[in-house]
Model the fold of this input.
Amino acid sequence: MYERGVDEKGFAVIRSKGDKALFLLGTSLLKRKLGVPANRPVADFLPTVSIKAKDFAAAMTAENVQIKDLSGVPDIEKEHVDNNLGVRKIMLERGLVPENLPPAEDVKKVERRLIAEKEKALKDKK
Done:
């Protein structure tokens, strides 16, 4: 998107508007609902289906930016919001309400646990 007139600030705005379309909540409200600390990314606490939903909408946006030759924040933002609304619609049709899904375990905790288990396994081998 950078070669299409979107800087880092514009990219953040596009992502934020996409999240709001998918979850019907802004980032700060979504963090509060999921119990995410303010200094941590919400993605570290999202269930797998939500991460996949965000990724799918982003992939569709990237593809359509090329196909439709979109440029600039307004056009790309609209495309991204529309894709997130489409993904939300599919999820709702399948009985999944994105903003009501329970949070996943904090990825930092999972990472620490995996490291500890690996270290224990290495000790046990000796």
Summary: The mean pLDDT is 93.
